[in-house]
Amino acid sequence: MLPKGMKHLKNLRYLDIKGCYELTCMPAGLGQLSCLRKLSRFIVGKDNGCGIDELKDLALEVNAKEKSHHRHGNDEDILSGLQPHSSLKKLCIMEYQGVSSPNWMMDLLVPNLVEISLQKCERCHQLPPLGKLQFLKALTIVRMDALKHIDSNLYGETESSFPSLEVLKIVIAPCLEEWTTANGGQHFPLLSSLTIRYCSKLVKLPMLQSLKELQIEGTNVGLLQSLMMSAH
Prior knowledge:
Elements: E1 14-15, E2 38-44, E3 61-66, H1 72-81, E4 90-94, H2 103-106, E5 115-119, E6 138-142, E7 149-150, H3 152-155, E8 160-161, E9 167-171, E10 178-179, E11 186-187, E12 193-197, E13 213-217, H4 221-231
Parallel strand pairs: 1-2, 2-3, 4-5, 5-6, 6-9, 7-10, 8-11, 9-12, 12-13
């Protein structure tokens, strides 16, 4: 265990407990550490003051873990309870095994995000409406095995989406087969760099007129053919 009085370290900004594999829970009251900005792991406990809700008012970078055996249903509960502060600028979610995105992402309760990275969210089949994020400049999607479509669900049912996005990377999405844009809508107006790697079922990209850099690797030959045709 960690010292019970850690909640009194009011100026604590970084708490790194990587490698502390024998911990069974966190000390009660960590939510009182208003200066805390980075927490390498959070182990969910059952006692009062040791639950995931301790993190709800903290603007920090955290990796939440349950000490019990990994269960997919609990992933969704944990991530839903990890709603970040609305001023958060950078968000990275790794190895999330839930099927759907948390409510705070679907409802865009973190509107000031500038950078988002979703990695190894292998069971999640639908992306939240990130196109509505006015300040988002970089989006990285890695190992999203269940993702099949990039469509209006991502754009957010709006005629103008991703107004500030400059860099988009999609790596290892083996089921991604369709990327559509709504007719007449303005999507990705500032996108300058696009990376598509190991998306073997994707055969067509939308027209991206602002694109300056395109990296493609391990993709379907049909995707290359469609790109060559659109270039003419």
